[in-house]
Amino acid sequence: MNPRNLVPAAGILLVLVAVAWWAGLGDAPLPDILSFESNGHVEVDGERGTGSGLSGGEVGDTAGDPAIVSEINGDSVSNPRRVTSGESRGRPLRIRNQGGTPARKRPERVDGGDRPRGSSHVPGGQPTGRSGSPSTGSSRRRPSSETSGNSVSTTFTGERSLVTGSVQRVDGSGRTPVQSGQLFLWSNTESEGIVQLETSITGGKYSVSVPRGHPLNYSSALVDETPLAVITPASAPLITSNRQVAVLLGDSNQPLLHVIGSDTGEELCAIQVLRVPNWNRNTRPNPGWPCFGDYQVVQECGPLVLDSRLGPPGPMVPIHVRADGYAWGRISVDLIGGGERQIILDPGTALNILLSGDWDRPGAAVRMTTVNESSRIPYMEAFPEGQSNLHVDGVVPEEYRVSIEVGHWAQRPLVLAEEQIYIGEETGFIQLHVEEDDTERVLLGGSIVIPDGWYLSSFTLRVRPISPGISVQVETQEIPSGTMFSEVDPIGIRYFWESDPLPVGTYALLVLPIGFGLNVETGEEGNLDTEVILPDPVTVEVHTVLTGTQYPAFPNLIRWTPVRPPGVPGVGALPVTSEGGGNVFIFDAPIGSISISCTDAAFEPTYRQVQVIPGQDNVFNLELTPAIGVKIYLFDGETPIPWDIGWHPDFDAVEHNGTIVTRGRIGQAYRILVSQPGTYLLTLPNEMTDFILPPPQLVDVSADEILDIDIPLESE
Fold it and tell me: What does residue 668 show for φ and ψ, rounded to 5 degrees?
């Protein structure tokens, strides 16, 4: 035989063997793959501090928008919604120490959904790359990586392997084959990012075509509309050829989400879920397209198992959900306790945006704001990340102001371009053209001396403009010490730095996290001779005691920050913990005035300004008053209902002058601290539109106590 014929013959033989082998697998077809594609990213969801005005305060999340700043600062809430017992079929609240039984289990409903273009974070991993957030000031300094993060899709064009195997479920009676269900998997490829896979379980077996040469991650399964966890394989096997992998499933506390169309009342298909860690985008009705750091899940049809593809678990995780032809909706889910939830999506449309001109600025965000509302809170907010053609799915038909801006929307952002458009049932189109930036720029630089004794492994220099007419949002730069050249100095280590080109003017230099700095001028030709010398550190000792006594108080931590002169921008307070959980907190600080504070959940927010003097003991007392108030928990039957970011109950004093000291989400509860004991009227917010709410309830708040309140809800 001609040797050249051996290759085709061998190929035909292999095909015949594969067909015969495949025929023995039963009716387990290759999955139908959706054509979703994305190239955005995701970030881990986090809580925001409230009540203190200092960064990293108590665990809550109401600090994002000015609309609730008055609540954070202790102002009582006005215009409570009045609901009489005759107006509501809702059940009364339940004080935990007064007993009560939970009601039957029932899924929740929320409104919202649509499909964008972006990418996603590696499921179950840590976000990488730049966050793109404009809220903390942007920088002309480009990040070292210009990649747009890991993409998420359900298609793959590279080489594939066939993975098959048995699927069993283990319970108290042993192991049994799973006759039918869905299995969810994903693979992280270098060339095409995250590839999400979904395949059927039939007769105790599965088969799936997967990217070759990459680990295969088994996320979860859905059997009889019940989410199950993957017990084995416990780690992701490397797929280098066709192979068999047995799957063992077990009970799971992963939540199950039903996605329902408001116009049909039926489960929707072509579903997309985003977990958006960026605080500003997280609170918006429409998250736009997936951006770097976002976690993303795409699935052919509901219900959805909310598993590790959405990142680290948490008790109160806000997510956005959409389906093709429907507007985005937002719901908070418990990724630890699980439960069955439901979200109702209204029909939606889409908008195409074309960016032109000098639009690619660091920190630039595209925003949509509803024209008919007096508030300028964005309806949609996302980052272009190098893409000039943008597609916004899941848009509610309305008239919008569309803009590209640098800076937080509530802090006088620099508007690069804006247009107005009415979006109806058909997809809209708008172009935003940004004029060239012809600002004269110079260099700013110099050195920073860190004296011995600070033991700083790293620090950051913040360069922030303070001259009128220079945008803080656009021109602020943060330069990490890792990018600086350093040499030994007689008193410590000297670091040399240089900014990217800046407009001529006055700038504040601030060394973080110490919070020490000064103001400098660039001059018309630039200034590369600035010098910042940190003062020698002084040891400070703070004792926390109960107000009016010398008895110790035991907060989890306290915070401190230097008091800066007028015109020098500051930084958030630095946390300090005690050794052994006691009431003595020791830290090093620069000489001069510092502010010490405590925003521990068990105490009222407290602040004190002290003077740090070298050569003295620098020992101070911080008096703490035990907090009083309530922690409110919501339940739909036996399922805990996490508080949504936009839900803020009223809590009004009745016949006394008590006020709200601070409020916000904490754990699975909503906590409200008040200034004095007494009777208060608790009213749930109007925004909880998918529940039958109980009427306002009177709550008696006692001294030195935070009362836990359970409120049973019922879905409409």
Answer: -95, 5
